[in-house]
Design a protein that fits this description.
mainly alpha
Length: about 190
């Protein structure tokens, strides 16, 4: 019975237990076996608990900002009211409003090592950079054909740079120029 009442948003375990105690309904009874009078009395208490002499500290919205009265909110009214409260804090420029705006902790918790769910902080890793050949214009420089452009040779075609050291040797051999070994270049 208690668990069935707690399925209503805004009714917790203690609130459901107190409702059943005030109405003197058996806690172990099934909801389907309630009489229509008992169902109506449960509904009336849930809708207006202050009329049934519930203490004000039991209600979930005490001293409402707009009306100043104690209320007990249910179902979608809870989310709607919380959203309005946060918007009011943001527009008034309060400290809590600023914390809500920037997605930081609002209730005074520490933020040194927790609450890092937001945007990335630090250096982003970049992709691999392709090495450039000596004498050839760098990619993106003027005069260098862009990949996929009409003037650029297709990968694997003759005249196109092949991948790896083997491809570099093949292109040098096919061009007819012989290069000196690396030891001679240092001189």
């Amino acid at each position: 019975m208690i668990v069935g009442l707690t399925q209503i948003r805004g009714v917790g375990y203690m609130f459901a237990n107190t409702i059943l105690n005030v109405l003197k309904i058996n806690h172990n009874q099934r909801i389907g076996h309630l009489s229509p009078e008992q169902v109506n009395s449960i509904e009336s208490i849930i809708k207006n608990p202050s009329a049934s002499n519930f203490p004000s500290w039991f209600l979930n919205r005490r001293k409402d900002v707009e009306t100043g009265e104690d209320k007990h909110l249910l179902t979608s009214d809870i989310a709607f009211t919380v959203r309005n409260d946060v918007e009011r804090e943001k527009t008034s420029g309060s400290w809590r409003g600023y914390r809500h705006m920037f997605g930081l902790k609002v209730r005074g918790q520490r933020t040194r090592c927790t609450g890092r769910k937001g945007g990335a902080v630090g250096v982003a890793k970049g992709g691999k950079v392709m090495p450039t050949r000596e004498g050839a214009p760098a990619a993106g420089a003027e005069g260098a054909p862009a990949a996929g452009a009409e003037g650029a040779p297709a990968a694997g075609a003759e005249g196109a740079p092949a991948a790896g050291a083997e491809g570099a040797a093949k292109t040098k051999e096919s061009s007819g120029k012989k290069e000196a070994p690396a030891a001679d270049k240092k001189k």
